[in-house]
Amino acid sequence: MNASESDRILHLRKELHRHNYNYYVANSPEISDREFDILLKELEELENRHPEMYDPNSPTQRVGSDISSGFIQAAHIYPMLSLANTYSIDDVDSWVRRTTEGLAGQDFTVVGELKFDGTGISLIYEHGKLVRAVTRGDGEKGDIVTENIRTIRSIPLELQGSGWPDFFEIRGEIVLPWAAFDRLNRQRADAGEPLFANPRNAASGTLKLLNHQEVARRGLDAYLYYLLGENLPCDNHYDNMMAARSWGFKVSDAMTKLQDLEEIDEFIRKWDIERKQSPVATDGLVFKINSIKQQLNLGFTAKSPRWAVAYKFSAERALTRLRSVSFDVGRMGNITPVANLEPVLLSGTIVKRASLHNEDIIKALDIHQGDMLYVEKGGEIIPKITGVDSDSRLPDAEPVKFVSHCPACGTRLIRVEGEAAWVCPNKQGCVPQIVGRIEHFVGRRMMNIDGIGEETAAALHAHGFVNNIADLYNLTVPDLLKIEGFAEKSAARVIDGIAASKTVPFERVIFALSIPFVGETTAKKVAKAAKSIDRLMAMPAYELEAIEDVGPKIAVSISEYFGDQENREIVERLKAAGVTMEIPQETTDTPMSDILAGKTFVISGVFSRHSRDEYKDLIESHGGKNAGSISKKTDYVLAGDNMGPAKLEKANNLGIPIINEDEFLKMIGTSTE
Ligand code: IVH
What we know:
By secondary structure, the chain is an alpha+beta fold. The chain is built from 24 helices and 22 strands. It has a 5-stranded mixed beta sheet. Strands 14-13-12-15-16 form a 5-stranded antiparallel beta sheet, with no helix packed on it. The radius of gyration is 30 Å and the shape is globular.
């Protein structure tokens, strides 16, 4: 190979690692984004021409490949422990006193840090290169998520500077910054997908995605706070972290050496206020003894180190006046009381509304008109009303009363026995319910019809074009053009989307119908068991109850839904329009053969001809069984690429035959040509 090209590849990699660090860690880019992209593109082209120079740590690998694979577990070298929590300055003071005793009166320095609210990670570096990333898991072992971690731009794939040990571990927190979290939740809301409650859940959920490209898009970040290994550069935590910073790791600027109780108290007071400006979620502070020798002296309890302690911030709370209570009507007719508040600043956002959940909660809190209410944001996005300041209540204030009639259509509300919610029974005539069902029906995880949001759904109904979900299939481009905001192109796109939705699988159609209590998972089980809408509509309650996940409540709900004449008509019209109302023959549970009867398979690795799930289905449809782990009962291991080494060893030890996908397909008589 051309020596100058290989030199150029190495040079570009080095340069791009450096620019990457300047941009994502040091916040001081030397070149423009465009110049960066040009260099990256050049490297990509050179690497394509020289596959023999493939390197998983190349800056080109950051975007992540689209290949999905399951996760393999690895044991932690040192267990990943948690921290003891404290909740007040007094608690921290007593930890300092205990530590003084533990160290027999020696002098010590404490390091104060932010406690990032994300998900813990352990990174292993060998010869200056990232080789493995493992989640906290159960503390003893976690999931290997190296490929996902490689997409995080602030994590160095190759270290810079000098002085790192040949082998070391560094731990830190993977976080989703507020801005990325808000963007992700907005996208999910638009797509009708459930929202993440907080950045912590979003970060850990993202780390476990199988699609590395999606991980790369979400914008995770990482802060490192703990260096471990045999040959660390310094004898104290603070200097080790400063060394790590010089190797390219993102170490928080908040990290501060503190000499005495006074400085610790000051640090707490300062960050209790400044954390509100932080671009990432924090849930407290961490204090650590600086000297590693002293850390070793103090040691660990079974659960946590004695040389460190967490101080948890209290949930932010604000007091504000109740302006009024309004009642929202959901697509299932559920009435939710909502407190309209005088706007108040809470954890960086202005809060104007908070859910009061149901009548029982209003009664339990004894809320009166015009009350001063305590609002809290306890790590969740929707603020909660947690209390009332009854001292400031106006003398003639009336208790808040739950409505007796639907605020939208005036129908008398009913309360189902054993349920806290009041419901409007006017399913077919109550506007927010109709519009809500249309909105749900078109959502991405349901019929996936683009271009119809809440406003459009309401306008379609207001113009008299769509009164129920079946009417969508009669919609025309000229109809849509009568609605504000639509032009030829956007209208045609919606109509195309509606036509395309006819091929959406049966299980998603069931979910899209808005049958009370039938969520996504239940819909799948129901569709699989019934196989067709005709069969489902004819199923008596006892047969419905026999379906996994379906209890008496859901069985009654399904029976009632299909017992309703209007719903039956809607279903008939959807069927006539060509919407998928059954599971295609070949994917039903009827075995294609019983060639694998009595045989148990374990699937491991990544496949090229079919997905793992398809292989699982194939095994079952030929009479075989799938198992999650290898045991004496396993007959075959169906292995793809990257089969986990532990599984391989176990299969070999037990003498279980390992077959590849071609061999498997031959086994079931499918041609592999
Ligand atoms: S040190 C043995 N420092 O909090 C000490 N942990 O509740 C290991 N965390 O599992 C942890 N910020 O995921 C440390 N500055 C920080 C931290 C931090 C967040 C997380 C970490 C840990 C959990 C303990």
